[in-house]
């Protein structure tokens, strides 16, 4: 089996989609597949960072393509960057030999890359597997980037429907997404529903107070409530920020935001506006240190925007479970996250705007003994091991793709 992956984000990028695709490519390469990836020359978050044009890593051949790198300063810049990469991929695919690959695997970064993949796959008569990480234009509508029922929305819906209906196989992340794909024309027999695995390679086994990330950043003995990951429109942090503001005089709590993205500036502005010393912002951590940074917290925060169930799939839940931390989930119910947390006592679930409920739960949490925190964390680990074992999930996907 010779597989070609097309994606803007790939190794060594820190974006979760890129890490998932790299893990899958690496696994397939080691299990009777030859894998090539067409991806971007530039890091997703920091376009000043340039990677090698050609590289082979663990046997996976990586071809990195040119694109503009205007960054995320405004919507127009993002659109131009996305468009330029799609154009580069289009011409690269146009000149591949139809005999060189047995399958093309495409995803949703950047938006509508899958349309190009499906279109070219039909010309080349190469099967196309659509790995659906999110759904457009629904995600852009809910993020306020596209107006509902506009000409733009209708155009992008047609492109999305074309990709969904003409893909030979689709990989969905949860039952809500699968249901929506079927509504948009996907054939149920062509869909594999499988979650993402924890994107962490190691476990931190040391004591809480000896954690190097905790010491380095001066957390002390505070209860650290951490949001770690992309600060995106689809992960609104307003409720968490309001909780921090209400608890600004309670010295027991420290709210730590790790990562970047288009809404990182919102956290900074909120902190400055309200003069909050209980908010700390830190940069993205490399994957080989993620287990240490996540383990430095006492509560891991997972956020999902309203009206996004089935359209996107925050994967922070898996890392939080894996490192054995109690979880604060802020978002709609039901969702794939609320389904996971059902029956896992000790975790906290609330909807956006429920500031008082979250504060009361955090105060209850603060009154518990560390042994109680550890019990919640261990239950989370056990659930993660039982349901999201990386090798099993990757093998499910590989078997589905090659059959």
Which features characterize this protein?
Rossmann fold, six-stranded parallel beta sheet, 2 domains, 15 helices, eight-stranded mixed beta sheet, 403 residues, 14 strands, alpha/beta
Quick summary of this structure?
41% of the residues lie in helices and 16% in strands.
The CATH topology label of the largest domain is Rossmann fold
Unreliable residue runs: none
Overall structural domain count: 2
Determine the CATH superfamily of the largest domain.
Glycogen Phosphorylase B
3D architecture notes:
Helix 8 packs across helix 13 (355-367). The chain has 403 residues and is α/β, with parallel strands linked by helices. The termini are close together. The mean pLDDT is 95. It has 2 domains: 2-197 and 390-402, Rossmann fold; 208-387, Glycogen Phosphorylase B (Rossmann fold). Helices cover 41% and strands 16% of the residues. Strand 7 (169-172), helix 6 and strand 8 (191-193) form a beta-alpha-beta unit. The relative contact order is 0.11.
Describe the SSE topology.
Blueprint: E1 2-6, H1 16-29, E2 34-40, E3 54-57, E4 60-65, H2 75-94, E5 103-106, H3 113-124, E6 128-131, H4 138-142, H5 151-166, E7 169-172, H6 175-183, E8 191-193, H7 212-216, E9 223-228, H8 238-246, E10 253-258, H9 264-274, E11 279-282, H10 290-295, E12 299-303, H11 316-322, E13 327-330, H12 336-341, E14 348-350, H13 355-367, H14 370-387, H15 390-402
Parallel strand pairs: 1-2, 1-5, 2-4, 5-6, 6-7, 7-8, 9-10, 9-12, 10-11, 12-13, 13-14
Antiparallel strand pairs: 3-4
Helix pairs in contact: 1-15, 2-3, 3-5, 8-13, 11-14
């Amino acid at each position: 089996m010779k597989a070609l992956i097309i994606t803007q984000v790939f190794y060594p990028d820190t974006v979760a989609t890129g890490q998932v695709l790299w893990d899958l490519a690496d696994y397939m390469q080691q299990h009777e597949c030859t894998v090539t990836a067409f991806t971007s020359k530039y890091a997703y978050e920091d376009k000043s960072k340039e990677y090698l044009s050609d590289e082979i890593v663990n046997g996976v051949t990586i071809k990195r393509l040119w694109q503009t790198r205007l960054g995320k300063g405004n919507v127009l810049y993002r659109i131009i960057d996305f468009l330029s990469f799609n154009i580069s991929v289009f011409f690269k695919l146009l000149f591949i030999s139809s005999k060189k690959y047995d399958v093309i695997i495409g995803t949703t970064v950047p938006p509508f890359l899958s349309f190009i993949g499906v279109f070219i796959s039909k010309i080349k008569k190469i099967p196309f597997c659509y790995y659906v990480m999110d759904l457009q234009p629904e995600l852009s509508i809910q993020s306020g980037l596209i107006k509902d029922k506009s000409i733009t929305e209708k155009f992008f819906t047609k492109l999305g429907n074309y990709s969904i209906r003409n893909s030979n196989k689709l990989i969905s992340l949860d039952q809500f997404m699968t249901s929506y794909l079927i509504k948009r024309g996907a054939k149920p027999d062509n869909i594999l529903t499988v979650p993402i695995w924890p994107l962490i390679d190691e476990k931190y086994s040391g004591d809480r107070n000896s954690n190097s990330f905790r010491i380095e950043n001066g957390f002390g003995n505070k209860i650290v409530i951490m949001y770690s990951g992309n600060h995106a429109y689809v992960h609104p942090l307003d409720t968490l920020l309001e909780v921090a503001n209400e608890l600004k005089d309670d010295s027991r709590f420290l709210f730590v935001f790790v990562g970047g993205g288009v809404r990182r500036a919102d956290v900074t502005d909120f902190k400055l506006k309200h003069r909050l010393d209980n908010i700390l912002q830190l940069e993205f951590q490399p994957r080989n240190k993620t287990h240490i940074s996540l383990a430095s917290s006492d509560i891991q925060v997972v956020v999902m925007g309203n009206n996004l169930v089935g359209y996107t799939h925050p994967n922070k839940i898996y890392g939080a479970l894996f490192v054995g931390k109690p979880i604060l989930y802020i978002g709609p119910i039901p969702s794939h996250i609320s389904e996971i947390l059902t029956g896992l006592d000790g975790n906290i679930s609330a909807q956006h705007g429920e500031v008082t409920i979250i504060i009361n739960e955090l105060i209850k949490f603060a009154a518990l003994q560390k042994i109680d925190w550890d019990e919640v964390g261990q239950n989370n680990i056990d659930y993660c091991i039982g349901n999201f074992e990386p090798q099993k999930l990757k093998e499910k996907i590989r078997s589905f793709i090659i059959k």
